[in-house]
Amino acid sequence: MAMLSRVADNLYWMARYLERAEQSARLLGVNLNVMIERSSAAAAGHWQRVLEALWLSGGAKEEEGAPSVLDERVLRDLVFARDRYTSVFGCVAAARHNARQVREEISAESWECINRLYLRMRGTDPARAGATQLFDFLQSVVEALYLVRGTMDGTMSHGEGWRFIRVGQHIERAMAAARLLDVYLTPIEGAQGTAETPPHNFLDWVGLLNSCSAFEPYCKSYAHGVEARGILEFLLLNAEFPHSIRYCVDCVQHDLGDIAIAAGQRAGRSQRLAGKLQAQLNFGHVDDIMGGDLGAYLRGIEQQCLEIHDAIYQSYILYSLDDALIA
Amino acid sequence: MEQQKKSRGEVVELALSTLDEQRRQPFDGYALGAPYDELFDRAAAPRPQYQILHERLQELGPEELLQRQQRADLSFLNQGITFTVYGQQESTERVMPTDLLPRILTSAEWTKIEAGLTQRIEALNLFLKDIYNEGKILADGVIPRELVYSAQHYRREMRELVVPRDVYVAVCGSDLVRLPDGGFAVLEDNLRVPSGVSYMLANREVMKHVFPELFRNYQVQPISQYCQALLATLRLLAPAGRSDPTIVVLTPGIFNSAYFEHAFLARQMGIQLVEGSDLAVHNNVVYARTTAGLRRVDVIYRRVDDDFVDPLAFRAQSRLGVPGLFNAYRAGNVGLANSIGTGVADDKAVYAYVPKMIKYYLDADAILPNVETYLLDDEKQCQHVLEHLEDLVVKAVGESGGYGMLIGPHSTLRQREEFRKAILANPRNYIAQPTLDLSCAPCFIEGAIEPRHVDLRPFVLYGGDRTTVVPGGLTRVALRRGSLVVNSSQGGGSKDTWVLAN
After folding, report:
1. Contact flag B293-A259 (C-beta cutoff 8 Å)
2. pLDDT in tens, A122-147
3. Which domains can be identified in chain B, with CATH numbers?
4. What ipTM describes this predicted complex?
5. Which of B78, B272, B288 sits opposite A116 (nearest CB)?
6. Which residue of chain A comes nearest to B276, CA vs CA?
C-alpha cells in the first residue's frame, strides 16, 4: 500500500525538527566560540543577531526582558528549555514525538539514535553546564544529529518515506540559510556607508560561514578572501555545497519528483513551485541579486519555501476526501 | 515444609559462619515456603529444568548479575519499550520492569497447556457463534440466558451477522496460574484486545543478548515466529475475492498504554499502523488516506475497544474510531480481528461456565481447569461470599487490567464495606474467587535473588481450522514482596518464559 498521509506528515516534520535542532545547536556553539574573542559591546550586537537568526528577537524582547547580552541562563534556556519548540531540546523532543508515531517506518536503528539523543539531553542538568561544557555539549549534539541522519540514510529504504524526510530536511535548511543571510547581510546592504552600522569584520564572516559548516569549503572555492559577495554567492547559489540554498532546492525538486512517481502523479503544484524557485537560483547571478533589494529577495525565498510546503500538504496530506473519491 | 526451611537455613548459616570473607551468594536470602516454588522442589533442591540456571547464577554472583540487569534495562530504555500509566501527570511513559531471570517450563508442562488452550479457544468461538445466532446452549439451559444478555460486553448489533470463517476471537491471551499441586489453571480469558505479546518477544531478544551462554546450554523453543503467524491468521479473515489483501493495525494512538506494542507488531508484520483518522468508509468499503489517494483496506487488526471502534454504531463521541466501519463489517467488505462483542465470553461470570461450554460443544472435559468461582446473583453463594469477604478476591465482571478488584486478605474494613454495598446493589456485576496462592519464581531484586508471585499469559491465535500457541508467553511478576497483583498498570513486571524442547 502507498504511504499513509499521516505518516508522510510525521516523517516530514521529524526531519524538519531534526534539521532545526542541528541548525540551532551549531549556530549557538559557533557563536559561543566567536564571542570569546569579542568585546562585550560588540558581543551584545552579535548576540542580537543570533537571536534574530533563531526567530527569537521580536516577541522575546518584551516578554523575557530583552536577552540581548550573553547571559548563561538565557543561553542554557535556548539549549535546554523543555516547554517550547524553539530550544534545541524542544526540537529534539518534537522530532522524537513525530518519530515515535512512525516507528514502523523509520528503522529501529534510527529510532534508537533519536531516542538516545533525547534521553541524554533530558538527563543533562543544565545548571551544571558552564560556557565551556556547553560548547562541548552543543558539538556533541550536532554530532549525534549527524549520526541520526547517517543512520537513516544507511538503514532505511530510499523510498517514498525517505524522500519525505529529505524534503523536510532541505526545506528547513533552505529557510534557515535564507534567514541567516538576511540577518547578516541585509543591514550592511541597507545602511552601506553610514556611520551607525560598522562594517562586519572578519570574525563575523567566519561565524556566518561556520554556522553553515561552510568555512573550509568556502575557502577552497574563493581564494581571494572572506567577503560579503563571495559568501552570498557561495551560500545562495553554489550547486555543490549541501548547505547552499540552491543545493537544498535542487534536492527538494528532485525528491518531490520521485514522490510524485511513487504516489502516482498527484504532485502538480508543489513540483512546479519548487521548479520555479530552482530555476530562479540556477540562473540567478550574485551581482544582480546584490544590486536589487537583497532583503526582499531572501525573504522571498523563505516565502516560496512556505508555498512549496503548503502545496505538498494539499497534494499528499490534507486533500479533501470528496476530491479523492472522484479521482 | 518446616523441614525444608530448616535445612536451607542451616546451609546458609554454615556458609556465613565459615566463610565470612567470601562474597555473598545470590540465593542467600531466598525464602522458601511458597505453596509452589518454580525453582526449588519440596526438598529445597533445584528442579531438573532449573539446575543449569541455578549453577550458573551462583558462578556469576550478585555483581555480575547486577551489571547484566543494567544492560537489559538500558536496552529496553533505548528501544523505547515503554508503556503508559494512566492517572499520573508527569512522566507517563515508563519502561516495563523486566526481571533478569527466565522462568522455565518443561516440554511436558507445555504440551498440556497448549492442548488446554487449543480446546478452550475452539469452545469459546463456538459459544460466540451460538449466542449471536441460534442460541442453542441457552435454549438447552446449559448457561442462563439472562447471564449472557446482561453481560456488559454483549453486543446486540452482532446478532445474525456473518463473521468470516466463524472466527470471532482470532487473538487471545489467557491468564494461567500454577496451583500448589503444580498443575495450571485458567484465571481469566482475554478475548477483546489482549496485550503483552510484544513484551514477550522483546524480553526474549534482550535475554539472548544478556545471557547468550545460557541459551547454548538450554534448548529453548523459539517464539519469534509469532508475528508471521499473526499475519497469516489475519490474512484468513479477508473478504472473499481479495487475493492480496491489505491488512492494517488500528491503534488508538500514541497516548495509548500499549502503543509501543501496536507499532511493534505493525513493523514486525510489515504492515501499516493506522489511526482512526487515517481511515474513511465510503459505500461500505474501508479506505486508507495515503499520499497516492484512497486505498482499500481488507483486514483490520483493531486494538481499539468495541465501544470506540465506530461512533455511528457505538459510542457516538469516540474520535478514535472510523465512522461507518461496523456497516462495512456487516456488509462483509472488511475483516476484523477480533470481532465485535467477543467480551461477552470473557465476562468473569460467563467464565465460570467455560468448562461446561467445552463439554457442550466438544464433548470433552476441560484439560485446564478453571479457578473456583462464586456467582453472586446466586443467593446462597452471595451469602457465603459476603460472610467471607476478608478471605476472598472479588472482581467486577466487565473489568480487566487489575482495576475494580478487592483482595480480601489485603483489604481494609472500609474497602470491604464499599464492596459489600456494591455487590448488594448489583450482584450480577461481581464474582468472587478464593485468594490464590500463586506460585513463586526466583527474581533478581536489588542485588539478591528472591521469590516473587508469577502468573503466565500465553498467546493464542485461532484461524478457524488451525490454532497456534507459540511456546512461551508473558510471565508477569508481582514485584512488590508479598503482592499478588501482576498487572503492569499496578506495579507488576515481567520476565522471559522458556519452554524447553523435550
Report:
1. no
2. 988 888 777 778 888 999 999 999 99
3. 2-94 (no CATH), 240-333 (3.40.50.11290), 374-434 (3.30.1490.270)
4. 0.80
5. B78
6. A6
